[in-house]
Amino acid sequence: MPTAPLPQFPAGFRFGVSTSAYQIEGAVDEDGRGPSIWDTFARSPGRIVDGSTGDVACAHYHRYAEDVALMARLGVGAYRFSIAWPRVRPAGGGPVNAAGLDFYDRLVDELLAHGVDPVATLFHWDLPQPLEDAGGWLNRDTAHRFAEYADATAARLGDRVRLWITLNEPFIHMSLGHGMGVHAPGRMLLFDAFPVAHHQLLAHGLAVAALRARTASPVAIANNYSPVRVLGDTEADAAAGAAYEALHNRLFTDPLLGRGYPDGPGFEPGVVRDGDLAVVAAPIDVLGVNYYNPTGIRAPDEGSPLPFEIVPLDGYPRTAFDWPVAPDGLRELLGWLHRTYGDDLPPIQITESGCAYDDAPDADGRVHDPERIAYLDGHLRAVRAAIDDGVDVTGYFVWSLLDNWEWAEGLTKRFGLVHVDYATATRTPKSSYAWYRDVIAGAAQGPST
């Protein structure tokens, strides 16, 4: 357990928590919501470790007021949630489902009534199934449907949402959902998935324009980053590290910040039309950084379809996901972004940072999670150190407020500050919840960033 107090953060630093729609809402067949690719994927036998679906998840759709009250007691200044595209436009395009927007209208008002800034993510992987049936992110038209959805959502909520995030982790959605097939929609394209990258980024740029026309609130994107640790000292190992760096960290950042696509395996420009890169590079106000762990890389064996091999990193504690706990990687990553992009880099907010452990109530019904406290303490110290290094970091959002439905892992991995009994939906704050509450209460707080 940490004993030394955390250093103070700058005035106005935003402490928050994050969730996503499909992972917590449930109510997938209610109030006009249409099917998403995750409904389809989760109901396909063998796709989800425990055979569960997000049909109920945490029942947040019906218990959102209870969850906002938890946030208010926690003292967070902001809540990052996602809006389910299939609730707002069940067919992907076409008519708006007013009942779906009504839910987010109620949620936003409840947050504001409790002094919590709404931070809305427009796409957290739950593509409407009718768009997938028409080609999904392989189809350029999906980017234009996304811009229409952004416009309709901002028309309703733009006067109250304090920060808009267009996409969540487009790299993960491309690589796991379209490259390797372990996430929805389950495509296995490897490097032929590049059109998914470009069309997501095009969608982002088009959505930025739509949001700017509707609201004065700042606009961001949330990218997943992983510092690359090259294991080996050969030229082949170095080349493997560079290839992975281009794929994971630069593919969704270089064009975003006006530098075009990096050189890398499979980054074919055939789907990029004249004017696209200018749309992609529309200025953003914040870069969201989702960080979980660094990645070990070495040269692949001969005949491998990939130009790198991912290898475990030794010497770190492990989470229940078997991810290394490496706060030093977050400071390293923030420094890399600062050095690589210089004046092109907007202010950063850590939009996800968290860990899964096998938390369970004890005989008295309490949930003790000292490993999570140690994790969060270390990562907040890494952020403070990066700020001292000159990186403009203005917020930190814990993943996650609640234990939730964890994609292909179903209900088997718990990330929450609050324990959820999935049979009853009962919420029980963990010891990490109390710790984070005390951190926030003791931090310098100022105007929202």
Descriptive report:
The structure is a single chain. Strands 1-2-3-4-5-7-10-11 form an eight-stranded parallel barrel, surrounded by four helices. Helix content is 37%, strand content 15%. A hairpin with a 4-residue loop joins strand 12 and strand 13. It is an alpha/beta fold and 449 residues long. 53% of the residues are buried. The chain is globular and about 55 Å long. The protein has a single domain, classed as TIM Barrel.
* Number of domains as seen in the coordinates: 1
How is the main sheet built? Answer: 8 strands, parallel, barrel
Reading side by side through the largest sheet, how are the strands ordered?
Answer: 1-2-3-4-5-7-10-11
**How widely separated are the two ends?**
31 Å
Helix and strand element order: EHHHEHHEHHEHHEEHHEEEHEHEEEH
pLDDT averaged over residues? 97
EC number: 3.2.1.21
Catalytic activity: Hydrolysis of terminal, non-reducing beta-D-glucosyl residues with release of beta-D-glucose
Enzyme class: hydrolase
InterPro entries: GH, GH_1_N_CS, Glyco_hydro_1, Glyco_hydro_1_beta-glucosidase
